[in-house]
Amino acid sequence: MDPKTIAYTLILAFFAIIFIQSGIDKVVDKKGNLSFLFSHLGKVFTRQLILLAFYTVTVLELISGLFFTVGTLQVLVYENKFFGEIGLVTGSFTLLILLFGQRSAKDYDGARTIAIYFIVSIIGLLLA
To answer: ∠ CA(52), CA(113), CA(96), 5° rounding?
Structure first.
């Protein structure tokens, strides 16, 4: 395996961990996550919009995490990048939703973290 493929595979594994953990956390601790979001975003967005975003992001995180996991295995076993690329695109879209929320809430530190993840995702796409 060449260095670009190794870096690409590590990026997929990195995001598989992040997205699956985050999605599962939202499912397991739905009440706590919603409570945080209502207090964090409640001055900017309506309760209904926060709920819609919460469920959308949860589903997208879990789907992206699945694509990242399958993509990692697909690269290792078949040297094919198809599912990893889908994971990077859906994951990037998910990160943009999260970034919009953080910027709207004026949580610039949180937005900075998401921006770093987004940059890594774009690097992954360039390595594909």
So the answer is: 40
| CA distance linking residue 33 with residue 118, whole number of Å | 22
Q: What's the maximum distance between 2 C-alpha atoms anywhere in the chain? A: 50
N- to C-terminal Cα distance for the chain? 13
Return the pLDDT at 58.
98
Nearest to 19 by CA among 120, 111, 87: 87
What's the whole-number average pLDDT of the chain? 98
Q: Does this model's pTM top 0.85?
A: yes
Considering only CA atoms, which of 86, 72, 78, 74 is closest in space to residue 14? 72
Q: How far apart are CA 8 and CA 124, in angstroms?
A: 6
Whether residue 54 contacts residue 34, with contact meaning beta carbons closer than 8 Å, is answered with: yes
The span from the CA of 128 to the CA of 112, in Å, is 25
Which residue carries 């770093």 as its tokens?
A: 116
